[in-house]
Amino acid sequence: MGKDFEAGVVGKETLRIRRIIEDHFVLNGASRIRDLPPEQFCCHGFVLGKTAEAGFGNEMYKVLTAAALSIMLNRSLIIGQTRGKYPFGDYICYSNFTFTMNEVKHLWRQNDCESKYGRQLVMRTDDFEKPAQTNVLCSNWKEWKQPIIWFEGTTDAVAAQFFLKIYTLR
Fold it and tell me: Do residues 101 and 147 touch, judged by C-beta distance below 8 A?
């Protein structure tokens, strides 16, 4: 294992992953998706990262897991707001690469997605802590038709690792 560090493999892989993340948010970031023509915007998908500000560690895992899923599923990221504020907004700056739920609703109406394209703005909600009540573990996530996906209960690194493991097996 030490040989990888000596050869610079870890540094190269870190930069490769960073490029993948940057490329994803350039292609699927709110700054680009906002400007898509209606027929493309209405076919686009989103992942919701929602927190309750109960504690920084667990709550940030929810946002980071949603960000990881947005990359895996090739969807844009929505950061859920509480009382009109971003989670921990007093301490963290958010970029122009994420949407708010209000913005997605507004753009959905503005682009007339429901009447022109027959696509209702609905959210698929799966509780990661109750896998027996969902088919999330067995289904093909890329075939889901719902515009917004929200995974509840993704409060630790195990959730992100699980999704990554499943994703790489497909």
Answer: no
User: Facing residues of 150 across strands?
Assistant: 48, 125
Between CA 77 and CA 7 the distance in angstroms is 35
Tokens of 144: 């889901």
The answer to whether the predicted template modeling score (pTM) of the entire model surpasses 0.70 is yes
- Residue 151's H or E segment, with its range, is strand 148-152
User: Which helix (H) or strand (E) covers residue 33, if one does?
Assistant: helix 30-33
pLDDT in tens, the chain (170 residues): 556 556 677 778 888 889 999 999 999 999 999 999 999 999 999 998 887 766 777 777 788 888 888 988 899 999 887 777 777 777 777 778 899 899 999 999 999 999 999 999 999 888 777 777 777 767 777 788 899 988 877 666 666 666 666 666 55
Closest among 145, 67, 69, 76 to 104, alpha carbons compared: 76
What angle do helix axes 157-169 and 56-73 make, rounded to 10 degrees?
10
Residue 69 is encoded by which pair of tokens? 């899923």
